[in-house]
Amino acid sequence: MIRVTAQRDGADYELTMTGHANYKPGNDIVCAAMSAITYTLLGTLDNLDVEYDSTERPGDLRLFLTSDDPRVKFAFSMVLIGFAQIAKAYPANVRLKFDGFFEDF
C-alpha cells in the first residue's frame, strides 16, 4: 500500500509518500505511475528554481518547501489530482490524505 500525505499551510508545503503498491511484483504499474507523477513534481520544482528539502529511499519520499509562487501551488495541485486519479482506479493499493489543498479553488 502506498500512503501519500500532502499538507499545505500558507506557503509551507509537505509531501510524504511511503510504502509500495504491491499491485503486481515485477510489473507494478501503480508504483510506476505514482513515481512518475512524483518525479514530475520534483522536475517542475527544479525548473522553477524552487529550493526544497527532500529525502528519498526506496519506498519513502519526504519533501518540504516554502514558496509563495502560485506556480508551486498549481504544480502541487496537479500532482495531487494525478494521485487521486490513480487512487480511484486502484483503491486497494493507494491511500491519500490531503490537508490545506483545494479549499480556495
Task: Summarize the structure in words.
The chain is α+β, with helices and mostly antiparallel strands and 105 residues long. The chain has a single domain, classed as Alpha-Beta Plaits (2-Layer Sandwich), CATH 3.30.70.1490. It is 37% helix and 31% strand. The protein has helices at 29-47, 70-89; strands spanning 2-9, 12-18, 53-57, 60-66, 94-99. A 5-stranded mixed sheet has the order 3-4-2-1-5, with helices on one face. Helix 1 (29-47) runs antiparallel to helix 2. The radius of gyration is 13 Å and the shape is globular. The model has no long low-confidence stretch (mean pLDDT 94).
- Globally, the shape reads globular
Low-confidence stretches: none
> What is the third-level CATH name, the topology?
Alpha-Beta Plaits
Estimated structural class: alpha+beta
| CATH class group | Alpha Beta
Q: Please give the radius of gyration in angstroms.
A: 13 Å
Major β-sheet strand ordering: 3-4-2-1-5
Question: How is the main sheet built?
Answer: 5 strands, mixed
What is the mean predicted local confidence, pLDDT?
Answer: 94
Strand content: 25-35%
**Succession of helices and strands:** EEHEEHE
Number of domains: 1
In CATH terms, the superfamily is Cysteine protease Prp
State the share of residues found in helices, binned by percent. 25-40%
Number of separate strands: 5
**Cα distance spanning the termini:** 29 Å
